[in-house]
Amino acid sequence: MRNEKIVKAYDSIHAGDEIKRRVFEKAMRKQPKKYLSVRTFAATAAVLVLAVLGYTLLTPQSGNSFFVRAYALIEQADGTIGLHEVDVIDRSRVKEQISIWQISEHDDERFFISVGLRHGGKNIESVEFSVDEGFFATQLISDFNKEAFSSFNNKTFRVAGSIHTGSHNPLFCTDFVVVGNTITSEQLYDDLLLFWGTYHNGLQNILDYIVIRATATFYNGETETLMVTIDNSRLARALGMSLDELMEYERQRSAYLSAYLLEHHDHYMSIPLEYLELVGEGISHFTYDPVYNALYWPGVGLVQKELLEFDENGLARHSFVYSGEPDSNESMWTGVIWGVSAVVIERDANGELTGRLYRVPDELRASSAP
Amino acid sequence: MNNPTLACAEDGTPQTFEEIYERQFAMVYRVCFSYMKNTADAEDAAADVFAKLLKHGVLFKSAEHEKAWLLRTAINQCKDHLKRLWRSSASIDDYKNLESANTFRESELLKTVLDLPERYKDVIYLYYYEGYSTKEIAQILKKPPSTIRYHMREARNHLKGVLENEE
To answer: Which residues partner with A343 through β-bridges?
Structure first.
């Protein structure tokens, strides 16, 4: 459906004859010299096309190349977390780094593991990734997510695991879209997260390694296949659990923390602000209208705007509890709470919101016992 | 198709590179300019698009195929150019020169559209200017229709105020 205002706006972009001629000449100059000489000899462009096409089809192309790399969040020398490419063909490096930074997500039926791959090379027309077990799925990364990633500091790498939440939280990503057991390079683009997924049944038998076949088709019709093995073994084993145990553990932890906050809500809301420690370093304040305000340190704290109740001073307050992974091989939630934070949202006369994050001193924390 | 030409129009008439260039240059340049936002880079990107057409000798099935291929190639080419610009270490003076090469005055609406994130800019251009449906855009950009509809929704939100104010 055309929109006249937009048509008019775009119509103001126009190139005169001079630019048109220059672009044509540039396009011709960008051809290899062999082609230029053909064009000089030929009377029409059609002959040139014949020459190019013939060359492409009949002459073996040299210099075809293909590589596959993965993105990994890696702690850098200065303590910050950076996004780096690692060569997935170098297995030892992958085992050491990718498995550590891999992201997983599950719902009641499926389990997803991120497999951020990048491919490249020379003379590649298309690339197809395929798996024999499981399937590919994608998520669209949200603007908020990108902002959060760009703001990561050395305290917040833990958030990376939780920020790729699934369809239940549109703040971060769109729904998972199950693509199938093959996905092509044309289906992958910026802002799309690639996952390998599987249904839970029998998962433990195939979880340790995801084997992905990456096949490049070159313009000359030749193909090259790379087998990419992504090691997931540490994903669950780092916690000393099987996958099912890990999922059960997460369920217990989530339920426990919710119950804890509900139980001690009045206590945390009544502590005067002057008793709390303002966290100066690592505060980030996002606004993501119209739904959320969010702060994180050391975990993400989200405040739904509609639920904010401002007092006469324009202040609204929420509490969060945060906890980490177990240090031992316990497969049951043992009630370890790292700390409690309070978020205060201040609304000024113009309706602008500012967030502050406070830490509740240990001596004012309610008992961990539910 | 036995005729080794670049394209074949719907009525079966063989088309040469020069005919395609004549027919599609304005569109390719418009897409390139919307990404690169200056004449010099838009020229380079557009030249690369047509150079690619020459190099790979694409055989188009129809006029629509020809247009869709050039649109997609132009968009991808510009993204590649922008990545290269980002990675290169050109001096600020280079960019000043490029800026001054712009010869037209942008409307507020155009400026807003050109400043949109790429994914929104693509769908706005293809939907509102070229008149493609979201299903067709999905085919051109090789993305799921649901993604295109999501981008459309977000893009409209970005443009809401400007579209209403534009004379």
So the answer is: A318, A357
pTM of the complete model: 0.41
Chain A nearest-CA residue for B3? A50
pLDDT digits (tens, 9 = 90+) for A35-68: 222 221 121 111 112 112 222 222 334 578 888 7
Q: Does B44 touch chain A (CB under 8 A)?
A: yes
Mutate to test the interface with A, among B115, B128, B150, B158 (most CBs of A within 10 A): B128
User: Residue ranges of the alpha helices (H) in A85-142?
Assistant: 91-101
- Do the Cβ atoms of B108 and B166 come closer than 8 Å? yes
**Which residues neighbour A9 within 8 Å (Cβ) at sequence distance 6 or greater?**
B107, B109, B110, B113, B166
CB atoms inside a 10 Å sphere around CB A236: 20
Pairwise CA distance, residues A234 & A212, whole Å: 18
Share above pLDDT 90 across residues of chain A, in percent, rounded to a whole number: 1
The full DSSP string for B82-132 is HHHHHHS---HHHHHHHHHT--SPPPHHHHHHHTS-HHHHHHHIIIIIS--
Task: Report the gap between the CA of B93 and the closest CA in chain A (Å).
Answer: 23
Whether residue B14 has pLDDT greater than 60: no
Closest Cα of chain B to A62: distance in Å? 15
Contact B129 A187 (CB under 8 A): no
Structure ipTM: 0.78
